[in-house]
Design brief:
About 10% of the residues lie in helices and about 35% in strands. By secondary structure, the protein is mainly beta. The protein is globular, with a radius of gyration of 27 Å.
Length: about 575
């Protein structure tokens, strides 16, 4: 179904049969999905956007395939037309997938008009055929089988959702796709580069293909990604393509595709990750309540000494902003302080915030872990690893992972692994799971508690030079199974009365004091033990390490982080 009968001659005049290339295979999670508890629209395969109803299509037939000039025959990209579209629904654009070993994991949305209580009979229809098409790129005669990329020209007041690809120069039929009324759309922007070809590849033409995403992300964003792509070539200016292509807007204020409370608990119990800590971890997590109960103190600028924090954190200052007036610190007694630093794995649990993503077409389940203390780092310089005594230490460490779940099917789509001040999304097809389940594995780095999808050593800093901070991860007997040990702390879209947020969540100040390290002293110690012929100047060495090594502001809690409302920062 995917193949097309064509050959392409590369620079060495060797024929490549496209039908002989392996087609991407659909990805399936390791275990079957459960029967989700009953609700409104979650997991039903359909989504109400107001005047439009959309479904995800994952069945395709090949439209055209491209192999990168002068490159490996596995490189390039394939373009697919959605098929099996139910009666009454219309395609909005085509899908593309790289010719690599990644399984087929994409989709495109197809749409139909539905009655909406607020729509007027005089309103233009939400979907209309394009007037015609503009050719925005083609491969040229040096390809064995040409590819042509067409931008639909929408009627006035309508927006384009995607591009159509053909293997001949005839314009596609106007019935091939639909355009969407402009007030039912949102602006979008390029996201991931799927494919790039330039003159170095043996062609005089440049060509780039990008996925797109809504410009406004986060839990208040209304943009719904259609799953199509944007391309840019040199035959004609295609800058207008990106300004013309849009995503859909969810005008359903009830967010009916989002999971209800029972479905949330079912999702966590089915997908809750197991977080493994390093076998040599000295600073384990604990519950927030254990931290408060065992000696954590609240400080204020004009207080002479710290004040105990009650078990639920109800005497913490609530709301406001992080103005630096308050902070939390360890007890003064060395024994009590050391005990608190070590944490208490038995009490530890993950704190869960559930929120809409991509206009409510996905659900983000952000799972936060608290560690009373962040330990010192180990620096790596070439083959040498040097444990530090103080650099990197701070009180109160909040880290998280986020599960992104497809609201059409209830499938786990991606996992975000937070890595200090950033992180990365990992597709479910590349995630390591607990055997026989759909529960991802998260590896927490030694002392720093950054999250990674696999075991090993991950360098933060000048990785090409082999200089930076080690993040060591490994499986051990220290772990938290968040499918069992979790606390749901917020899901604002359900309403204020559904989930009572804990008092400590409203504390917007710092969970540890600001620390400034004597980095010059520690770096000098490193310099002195290095062989003379590999010594860096102190100034150059400092520039290679992450800037947070030289001072730590006390970390803030989950609700003060940008990703509480916004999207994850990669």
């Amino acid at each position: 179904m995917f193949g097309c009968d064509c050959f392409y001659w590369n620079q060495r005049q060797q024929a490549v049969d496209f039908d002989s290339l392996p087609e991407p295979q659909p990805f399936s999670l390791p275990a079957p999905l459960p029967q989700w508890p009953q609700g409104q629209g979650f997991g039903t395969g359909r989504m109400n956007l107001g005047e439009l109803e959309v479904i995800q299509v994952t069945k395709f037939e090949s439209a055209w395939r491209c192999i990168q000039l002068g490159g490996n025959s596995q490189l390039g990209v394939s373009f697919y037309k959605p098929v099996g579209i139910p009666d009454g629904f219309h395609s909005l654009g085509y899908y593309c997938h790289p010719n690599d070993q990644h399984p087929l994991r994409g989709y495109v949305l197809v749409a139909r008009q539905i009655n909406h209580p607020q729509s007027l009979s005089s309103d233009p229809p939400p979907l209309r055929k394009p007037i015609n098409y503009s050719l925005i790129w083609s491969t040229g005669s040096h390809y064995g089988d040409n590819g042509y990329f067409w931008l639909p020209n929408p009627p006035t007041g309508y927006k384009v959702m995607g591009i159509v690809v053909t293997h001949d120069s005839n314009q596609p039929d106007v019935d091939e796709v639909r355009c969407v009324r402009a007030d039912l759309t949102e602006h979008c922007e390029t996201c991931d580069l799927v494919f790039s070809m330039d003159s170095k590849s043996g062609s005089n033409q440049q060509f780039q293909i990008w996925t797109t995403k809504p410009c406004a992300m986060g839990m208040f964003g209304k943009g719904v990604s259609v799953g199509t792509f944007y391309c840019q070539g040199t035959i004609s200016s295609s800058e207008e393509a990106l300004t013309s292509i849009a995503c859909l807007k969810n005008l359903d204020s009830t967010l009916s595709a989002m999971p209800n409370l029972n479905q949330i608990h079912s999702l966590i119990q089915h997908y809750g990750p197991t977080m493994y800590f390093h076998p040599e971890e000295d600073y384990l997590p604990s519950s927030v309540q254990w931290f408060f109960k065992n000696g954590a103190l609240l400080y204020k600028d004009d207080w002479k000494e710290g004040q105990p924090i009650n078990y639920m954190g109800s005497n913490l200052p609530s709301g406001g902003v992080n103005d630096g007036e308050y902070w939390i610190d360890l007890p003064l007694d060395d024994g009590e302080s050391s005990s608190l630093k070590n944490g208490n794995l038995e009490s530890a649990e993950l704190y869960v915030h559930v929120k809409p993503a991509l206009g409510g077409s996905f659900t983000d389940v952000a799972m936060w872990v608290f560690c009373p203390f962040n330990g010192p780092v180990t620096l790596k310089i070439g083959l040498m690893s040097l444990p530090m005594s103080r650099l990197g230490q701070h009180v109160g460490d909040w880290e998280h992972v986020t599960l992104r779940i497809n609201n059409f099917t209830g499938e786990l789509w991606q996992v975000f692994y937070s890595e200090h001040s950033g992180g990365r999304w990992v597709d479910a097809s590349e995630v390591e799971f607990i055997k026989g389940s759909n529960k991802p594995i998260v590896y927490s780095s030694k002392h720093g508690h950054a999250s990674f999808p696999h075991e090993g050593m991950f360098l933060q800093g000048a990785t090409k030079l082999g200089v930076g901070v080690r993040n060591d991860t490994a499986r051990s007997d220290y772990f938290i199974d968040s499918s069992i040990k979790y606390q749901l702390i917020a899901a604002e879209y359900l309403g204020e009365e559904v989930i009572k947020e804990p008092s400590w969540l409203q504390y917007m100040r710092e969970w540890g004091p600001t620390i400034v390290y004597d980095s010059r002293s520690e770096i000098d110690k490193i310099i002195n033990i290095l062989p003379f012929f590999v010594r860096f100047s102190v100034e150059n060495l400092i520039e290679l390490f992450p800037t947070e090594l030289y001072g730590e502001e006390g970390p803030t809690g989950p609700k003060e982080k940008d990703n509480w409302v916004g999207d994850e920062i990669c």
